Model the fold of this input.
Amino acid sequence: MDGSLHDRDALELDAAAGGSARRKPVFIDAFAGCGGLSLGLMKAGWEGLFAIEKDNFAFETLRANFLCEGTRHKYQWPSWLPKSPTSIDTLIEEHRTQLENLRGKVDLLAGGPPCQGFSSAGRRDPGDPRNHLVKSYLKLVHIICPDMVLLENVRGITYDFSINDEAPTTNYAEHLISSLEKDYFVSTRLLKAPSYGVPQARPRFFLIGLRKNIERQWPKKNPFTHISRSKKEFLTGRGLAPNTAARVAISDLELSRNGQIECADTKGYQAIGYRHPKTAFQRLMRDGFEGQPTDTRLAKHRPDIVARFKAIIETCKHEGRLNKTISKEVRERFSLKKQAIRVMDPLKPAPTVTSMPDDLLHYDEPRTLTVRENARLQTFPDWFVFKGKYTSGGDRRRREVPRFTQVANAVPPLIAEVIGASLLDYLPIKKLPSDKK
Done:
């Protein structure tokens, strides 16, 4: 199949080799962001049909990595769907007939609805309109009727919300489960990223639904039990282990080791150079890529800020507060209003990557992290490029998804790959027409 698929053959099975061949399992990525979930599923052996993402910056990242010629992984992308940003609601409104024609042909609908309204990393807002995108996801599920659904979100989605004192309590996770249970066997689990080799403390809510009323019975084992049991073999085969430390992940990106170069995509900025990987994790992230990775642009810290960062790093090391928010005394000493600042512990997984670059300081160097370092902590390979602005400020932060935010919002590809590989064992085996006697 190529990228210009017609409606009638968008998902035809490959009947080559005497009719005994099986097509790759097909998924659609809803709320795709920059493509972390898609990347992991594709690396696990899944075929991406298309992705839904409404932000311009995030979609340009998707285009660069999954739609351009010469990319390692590519969406099939049907001819009826423009290769441009769109929302789920707009997609349903403009292409409902084509979506209905996909019924019974999509193995997996995956997605992670925007989580800012649920997230404890920001101001949890039960009235955030983005919370209601969960309902849009459910609408798409009921139209396409995939064999499986996979949903990721922050654990805040499991909390009870009330818009005001008089409004009824809402729990979006419970709403999801109850809405899906009529047609799906639903399992949920809070997965902790370090257990899957991700060098970052990142607990996330995952939901897997296995469709009822299809020709084959599902295995009786809970899919999350299967995922948990398979992860050890998965990690061992890649030279990894749980609880990858921050230094193990990004020591080859240290400024003191590589020096500065001119930033290739932003005039007037410096970037970190690159030599070679030092650990098995770093070699995995290089993924055969040669040369200088993108997105290593350094922030322009004034000399007084550099001195402040250096003092904060030294103080946190002395106080034993690495990976923890800075103390009240440190905030008062440096007249800091921001409370969420942490200094990384080089010997442990990093704190959760957020969309705010100044939330996290390097473990040795008096600076914030680059987009590439955050991407490493999220397990994006070095060949993966990010597009759009680096940051946005003010009200634009609610309308734009710049590079730091794209990385922070993503599903770590390594977790997605573990899940994707495990879900292959749950695929219903459907006979091709030529198999029938």
Observations:
- The longest strand covers residues 184-192.
- Residues 1-21, 117-124, 431-437 have pLDDT under 50 and may be disordered.
- The longest helix spans residues 303-319.
